[in-house]
């Protein structure tokens, strides 16, 4: 029988759902069934997990279409949200099939969306998700009439290469918001003095597992001391000995753009008058 016949049959269906969580780097696969499911092409293992969900909302307001998935409170993905929000966005794809639909049951994508937050109650963790349709309908970024650059650093428009402005080195100490990293000296390495932005590494730190953190402060003790970085939120899994990748940030000013030699792509309007003539009047 086909998927449609099983799905619409009054008694013939034997539904099973597969939950695929991914952040683009890591993937977690679970099944609502009581047996582990193994795929051979491509190879994948769907682990059993006690899951339940509500019915997806059907509303004209696509941004309000949400789904809640409940799992045991120690579910590995839920624990990622226990202390701080992960550095990468997690998406869920739910596949639906019927066990008695032949040796290779047909799978259909039932729902897809973004994991927004996690809440806990007793022995359960509830994942709150927004439909992918709502995300596609949400308002995007627009260019603003402003002095600062409109472009995202290293993104289209800015056109800088992140690789050319990043440094790597082993972590030598981790304590809360402070991470110390040893960066070998290179012609383009951070200076030992004059650490005013944008020369300072006030950018992004990326751990081995892909966790990203914003750098809020940077200090260096010459001549051979490690670079001490203060991040906005602590790393969940960074440890001594792991390699940390650090990318320079940008203050979005014309001076910062000049430091990177990228004035041709500056996306701001630095000649905007400071005084508003409608407020202060026109001076001779």
Structure description:
The chain is mainly beta. The chain has two domains: 3-137, Thrombin, subunit H (Beta Barrel); 163-265, Thrombin, subunit H. Helix content is 11%, strand content 35%. It has five helices and 15 strands. The chain has helices at residues 3-8, 76-83, 132-137, 254-259, 277-280, and strands at residues 15-22, 27-31, 37-40, 43-48, 52-53, 66-72, 91-98, 108-121, 124-131, 166-175, 178-181, 204-206, 212-220, 227-231, 243-247. The strands form two sheets. It has a nine-stranded mixed beta sheet with strand order 3-4-2-1-7-8-9-6-5. Strands 10-11-14-13-12-15 form a six-stranded antiparallel β-barrel. It is globular and about 80 Å long. The model is unreliable at 192-199 (pLDDT under 50).
**Mind summarizing the main beta sheet?**
9 strands, mixed
Q: Mind telling me the CATH class of the largest domain?
A: Mainly Beta
Poorly predicted segments? 192-199
Percent of residues in helical segments? 10-25%
Total domain count = 2
- How many strands? 15
Overall CATH architecture of the largest domain: Beta Barrel
Provide the β-strand percentage band.
25-35%
Gap between N and C termini: 85 Å
What is the overall pLDDT average? 83
The shape is: globular
CATH fold category name of the largest domain: Thrombin, subunit H
Rg calc = 25 Å
Label this structure with key terms.
5 helices; Thrombin, subunit H; nine-stranded mixed sheet; mainly beta; 284 residues; single chain; 2 domains
């Amino acid at each position: 029988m086909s998927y449609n016949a099983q799905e619409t049959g009054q008694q013939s269906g034997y539904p099973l759902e597969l939950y695929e969580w991914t952040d683009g780097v890591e993937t977690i696969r679970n099944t609502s069934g009581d047996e582990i499911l193994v795929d051979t092409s491509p190879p994948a293992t769907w682990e059993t997990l006690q899951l339940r969900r509500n019915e997806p909302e059907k509303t004209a307001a696509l941004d309000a279409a949400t789904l809640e998935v409940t799992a045991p409170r120690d579910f590995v993905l839920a624990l990622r949200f226990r202390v701080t929000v992960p550095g990468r966005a997690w998406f869920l794809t739910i596949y639906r099939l019927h066990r008695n639909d032949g040796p290779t049951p047909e799978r259909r994508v039932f729902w897809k969306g973004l994991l927004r937050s996690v809440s806990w109650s007793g022995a359960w963790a509830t994942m709150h998700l927004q439909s992918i349709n709502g995300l596609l309908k949400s308002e995007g970024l627009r260019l603003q009439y402003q002095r600062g650059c409109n472009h995202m650093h290293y993104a289209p428009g800015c056109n800088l290469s992140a690789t050319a402005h990043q440094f790597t080195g082993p972590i030598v100490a981790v304590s809360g918001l402070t991470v110390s990293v040893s960066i070998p000296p290179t012609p383009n390495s951070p200076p030992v003095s004059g650490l005013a932005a944008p020369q300072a590494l006030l950018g992004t730190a990326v751990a081995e597992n892909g966790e990203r953190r914003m750098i809020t402060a940077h200090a260096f003790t010459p001549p051979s001391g490690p670079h001490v970085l203060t991040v906005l939120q602590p790393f969940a899994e960074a440890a001594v000995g792991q390699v940390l990748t650090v990318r320079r940030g940008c203050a979005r000013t014309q001076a910062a753009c000049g430091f990177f030699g990228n004035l041709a792509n500056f996306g701001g309007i630095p000649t905007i008058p400071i005084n508003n003539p409608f407020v202060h009047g026109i001076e001779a």
